[in-house]
Structures are given as C-alpha cells and as structure tokens.
C-alpha cells in the first residue's frame, strides 16, 4: 500500500496553496483533484479581487497557475476522487480510498474539498437539469445566446451571473424571494443598471415548465399569491452552496450545514493529523484569498504536527 506524508483532498485555492507550502517543506504532498479539478473558480469568469492581479484574471487561468506552481515545487497532483476515509482518532496514520478502489495510508490529511451549488429541490428542476436548468451561468449561459432566461437568487453570485447573462441573452429575469437583495450594494447597483435585467421581488419558483427542455417558469408572488408564467429557455439557480464534507461525517465535528468545525485560530480538527482548509470549514468569508490563506495554515499545522510526532518517536 502506498504511504504518503501529506495527502491533500481537493484542488481549489485552499488545496493548491496547502500543496505549495507542503512541497516547500519537503512533505512530498499528493493532491487528489476531485470531481471538479481547480474547484469553483474554474466556473467563474473575471476574478478582480485576488491580490497580485492588477488587471484581474480569468478564474480557470488563475487555477491553472495555482496548479503549475504546486507542481513546479514538487506536488504530485493526481486526477481522482477520495470516496471514503478511515481516520485514526488515537494519533495513528489515516487511510483513504481513491475512486472506491485503491487505499492509501497518510500521516497527515488536509481536507480542501470546498462546496457545491445548492438546488431548489423541486421535481421539475431535477427533471430538466442539463436540459435548460443549470447552476452555472458561466458554463452554460452560452447555450441561451439571444434567448430569455431566468436566474434565482439574490446574493453576489446571482447578481454576478445575472450581469454575465445580460451580455449574452436577450432578457434576464432575476427571481428574488424577499423584498430586497442580499448582494453587496455595488453588485445590486450593477444589476439595477442593466436594461435587460428585470428583478422580480417577493417572487418564488412554483414550477419550471417544459417536457424535454425548459420552455418557461411559473412564478408565485409570495405576498399576493398571484401566479404567472414567463416564457424562458434557460433557468439558472444561484442560491448558495453546500460544503462537500459528507464522507467525513463519521469522524469530524460539523455544524448543522455540514461545515467542519476546527479548533479556534487553527485548521486542526479533533483527530490528530487531520486538518481542514477553505470552504469545507468556512461559511463566513468563502473567498479565494481566504481559502488560500487557510490552505497555507493547514500545511503549516501539518508540518508542525509531523515534526512533533517525529520528536516523540525519536525520544
Ligand atoms: P449567498 O448565501 O450569499 O446568497 C444566496 C441567495 O440565494 C440569497 O439571496 C438567498 O435568499 C437566496 N436563496 C437561498 N435559498 C433560496 C431558495 N430556496 N429560493 C430562492 N432564493 C433562495 O450565496 P452566494 O453564492 O451568492 O454568495 C456566497 C458568498 O460568496 C457570499 O459571501 C458572497 O458575498 C461571496 N461572493 C462574492 C463574490 C465577489 O466578491 N465577486 C462573487 C460571488 C460570491 P435570502 O437573501 O432571502 O436568504
């Protein structure tokens, strides 16, 4: 069985930053990229708030740079998914299974599995997923060029995606369930200034219409109860994210939403040698730069853990 010093699960800003630090500390990190190599930034467009890029950078390009840097410094980046884990609560080594087949023994594990898009949970959304329903405007907006679309959500993601769609599509209906948006004032200002974006407040999705592809949406005003049908071809969901932490639930403490709880001011969990960085533990900031910061912390925490363990073994 392969044995590694530092196994990193996930390849977003947190995972790659952990890999960069672990590689430079000679921990020979092995990174498993997961289902979405590069993480959530690979499905975004311009990143304007990551320091060091005065003109901004495209998300996928930025993640390619993260990966190149990690590989150049010696990280072993592999395509594959960790499907289950066996963590040792008593300070021994840990075991992870890759793609349901190969088991690897790891002295330290850094969890950087990030978060995934949430869905409304209505049957028509599931039925038409991939046939007009999408949770990524940047990935799928292109297919609705020149058509009318709707987007659900009122946070920064929804506002950013509505703005993106407005450049491609004829008209964008933004479905906001309250009488105000959660997005930052700057983002609200941006969508309000777009002529082909119509914001419908107090509006919820009753049903997405269409047999084999999206033909419309029936919305309901949650104040008046009035229902109406809007013809559209694309339906985008942008209502937040869920942490990808299910495989760790037998071992690690989590909050009600599934975010892993770490010790204060550290990336340590209750299991010696298991650390968490990025959106898997952060429900407050959720930014690329904060994820990268906690990735760095996790690698430093893992290095200190290994040094202390080495000293104990020598003594
Ligand atoms: P948020 O959690 O901030 O917003 C989710 C939105 O979806 C809320 O407006 C919420 O409504 C709405 N919503 C949730 N469930 C439903 C539902 N069932 N039906 C209808 N609407 C629903 O998620 P985001 O993904 O927008 O943002 C996550 C974080 O990332 C935030 O901190 C944000 O600031 C940040 N971000 C920053 C960006 C940037 O700086 N460029 C870009 C994108 C995100 P309600 O308000 O009523 O709860």
Write up what this structure looks like:
- The chain has 315 residues and is an alpha/beta fold.
- It has two domains: 2-116 and 241-314, FAD/NAD(P)-binding domain, CATH 3.50.50.60; 119-237, FAD/NAD(P)-binding domain.
- It contains seven helices and 19 strands.
- It has helices spanning 13-24, 59-72, 123-127, 137-140, 156-168, 185-192, 288-314, and strands spanning 2-9, 30-32, 46-47, 57-58, 76-78, 82-86, 94-98, 102-111, 115-117, 133-134, 148-152, 171-175, 197-200, 203-209, 216-221, 227-231, 234-237, 241-243, 274-276.
- Helix 1 (13-24) runs parallel beside helix 2 (59-72), helix 1 (13-24) packs parallel to helix 7 and helix 5 runs parallel beside helix 6 (185-192).
- The chain is elongated and about 75 Å long.
- The two termini are 28 Å apart.
- NADPH dihydro-nicotinamide-adenine-dinucleotide phosphate is lined by residues 49, 120, 152-158, 160, 177-178, 182, 239-241, 286.
What does this entry show, briefly?
The chain has 315 residues and is an alpha/beta fold. The protein has seven helices and 19 strands.
CATH architecture of the largest domain: 3-Layer(bba) Sandwich
The count of helical stretches stands at 7
CATH fold node name of the largest domain: FAD/NAD(P)-binding domain
Ligands bound to this protein structure = NADPH dihydro-nicotinamide-adenine-dinucleotide phosphate
The proportion of strand residues reads 25-35%
Q: What is the structural class?
A: alpha/beta
Spell the H/E element sequence.
EHEEEHEEEEEHEHEHEHEEEEEEEH
Average pLDDT, rounded to a whole number, is 95
First CA to last CA: what distance?
A: 28 Å
């Amino acid at each position: 069985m392969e044995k590694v010093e530092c196994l990193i699960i996930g390849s977003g800003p947190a995972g790659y930053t952990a890999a960069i630090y672990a590689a430079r500390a000679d921990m020979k990190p092995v990174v498993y990229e997961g289902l979405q190599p590069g993480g959530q930034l690979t499905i975004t467009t311009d990143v304007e708030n990551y320091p060091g890029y005065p003109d901004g950078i495209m998300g996928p390009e930025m993640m390619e740079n993260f990966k190149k840097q990690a590989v150049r410094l010696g990280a072993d980046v592999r395509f594959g998914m960790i499907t289950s884990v066996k963590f040792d609560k008593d300070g021994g080594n840990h075991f992870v299974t890759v793609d349901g087949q190969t088991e690897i023994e790891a002295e330290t594990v850094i969890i950087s599995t990030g978060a995934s898009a949430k869905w409304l949970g209505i049957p028509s959304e599931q039925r038409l997923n991939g046939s007009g329903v999408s949770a990524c405007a940047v990935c799928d907006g292109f297919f609705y060029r020149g058509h009318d679309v709707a987007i659900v959500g009122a946070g920064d993601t929804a506002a950013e995606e509505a703005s993106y769609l407005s450049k491609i599509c004829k008209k964008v209906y933004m479905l906001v369930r309250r009488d105000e948006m959660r997005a930052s004032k700057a983002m609200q200002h941006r969508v309000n200034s777009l002529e082909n974006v119509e914001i419908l407040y107090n509006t919820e999705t009753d049903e997405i219409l269409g047999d084999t592809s999206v033909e419309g949406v029936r919305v309901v005003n949650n104040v008046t109860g009035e229902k109406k049908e809007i013809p559209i071809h694309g339906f985008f969901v942008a209502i937040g994210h869920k942490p990808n932490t299910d495989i760790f639930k037998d071992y690690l403490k989590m909050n009600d939403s599934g975010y892993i709880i770490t010790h204060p001011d550290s990336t340590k969990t209750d299991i010696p040698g298991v650390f968490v960085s990025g959106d898997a533990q952060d429900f407050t900031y959720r930014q690329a730069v904060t994820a990268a910061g906690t990735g760095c912390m996790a690698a430093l925490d893992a290095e200190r853990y290994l040094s202390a363990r080495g000293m104990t073994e020598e003594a």
